Amino acid sequence: MDEAVLTPILDILDIAGIAIFALSGAVIAAKERQTFVTMAFFALVTGVGGGTVRDLLIDAPVFWITDPWVAAVCLLTALIAWFTPVRLWQGKLFDFADGAGLAAYAVLGSAKALAYGIPPVPAVLMGIITGCVGGIIRDVVAGRPSIIMQPELYVTAAALSAAVTVTGMTAAPLIAPSLVIADGWIWGAAFLAGMALRAAAIQWQWG
Amino acid sequence: MDEAVLTPILDILDIAGIAIFALSGAVIAAKERQTFVTMAFFALVTGVGGGTVRDLLIDAPVFWITDPWVAAVCLLTALIAWFTPVRLWQGKLFDFADGAGLAAYAVLGSAKALAYGIPPVPAVLMGIITGCVGGIIRDVVAGRPSIIMQPELYVTAAALSAAVTVTGMTAAPLIAPSLVIADGWIWGAAFLAGMALRAAAIQWQWG
Amino acid sequence: MDEAVLTPILDILDIAGIAIFALSGAVIAAKERQTFVTMAFFALVTGVGGGTVRDLLIDAPVFWITDPWVAAVCLLTALIAWFTPVRLWQGKLFDFADGAGLAAYAVLGSAKALAYGIPPVPAVLMGIITGCVGGIIRDVVAGRPSIIMQPELYVTAAALSAAVTVTGMTAAPLIAPSLVIADGWIWGAAFLAGMALRAAAIQWQWG
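^ inputs. structure came back:
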């Protein structure tokens, strides 16, 4: 199980997703002129919130508790946000990066759930939760309308990535057993599908 | 332990409670003209939120992660809410159904806690949490004043059902050991007590 | 592990912290003229919220589920708040008591995390979470701006206590192995540091 989960591809997706989400948390605290400690708290909650809920639900050890690097990445991100102007981290480019983090987390979350033997439908939900819950906690604690209440294609993009991941990893071997598709290709396709949908939603303001 | 928890009575209470709560979540999303994915997310969070917190606290496997049906019921409920007019699911009749779900969840939650060897006072609290926490998360994420802040007899009704369940299952064998009361009767009485209090509060606008 | 965690000093810190936090939860419900059951719910959530999140994250049994006294202390606190005027529990004196609870919880939370073998950085975070999360949940559920969004030295005080605890318990033996410092002294110093910072912030309205 560990070999499947802890491949380098997932590791890179993981750290990138954490940093992007941590940054979006730190930026919200920065806009409110908070202390550094509060910014770090927001960076952490947003960066690891979704994966934490996933790990508690599937009864896995919470990923950042035993790994000293993840928390350090969040704190470092808060430090970067502290010493740079807020406007650097706003606008469409940041939204695209957030969309990439969303798709990466959705793929990672559903792949990890499948690796822990979770059935397909809950596994898709784990992907969505991993992608969306960090941002929801961030918005709820900050007293802002949460992403889930805005009629944007945000949760939908996570759902697409998670559904492609789970379908690819469970259905492909049944339909075409002779065709061995490496997990990396399925993850890449799933990431691109969710990322493309989210990017289109940002670009043309869908939803 | 499993025989006691997974009796048909509890199963029916469980599915009914999930569907009613999921519907109340989906309806809130529908009122805000959300996408279907967001409605499904709300249906799931509201439907399984209370039981999830209970299972995490008593260290039980989270009930809907290993069971593919529960998540399917929530998604189906969201689908029904999506294709029907919202006004169908509002008004006093829906409030009564929600009260029935509340009482059923309170009974189920405290009975499950007792089956896991939790002491009486925390077991009552598990019943209240199972009944109320799904709705609280729903309201907090939607940015609405949560049920817990309204001076209605809502939490009180859950507390009554949970207290009757725990008292019946722990005290009755001590007081009258010759009198064997089947758990089903205790659960029925506990459900009716909480349901009657909640129905009276809705009917005469108590609180 | 249990001997280290369950010393009398930590037990007293623990019960005092629970009662103070429970009171702050009950008082918010009292101000909104809630029913007793809602007050008790708030007392419980605020009193045990931070420690519950810590225990779930470090995979410890949730402390108040198996211990019948903790829940009883919360309910008793709610009872006291119910029968006394609210103004008794407001003002600067109560703020100082809340600061003491914050520092005590931060010490206790990080010490418990170290006892469970958590690395230093996450252990500091467990102390902060134990101190702050109960109050955050209280404010979020009550629909108030949460402590984390106010530019006060609140989270910072918890961070100071947690950092002193973790540094003292992990670094001191490495730097001065001949100097055996009893854990009690480290905890006392860590408590006083966080308490002093919080008291100064309250007294001179820092932040």
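Chain B has one domain: 2-203. Residues 46 and 137 of chain B are 7 Å apart (CA to CA).
thumbs up if we can close this ticket
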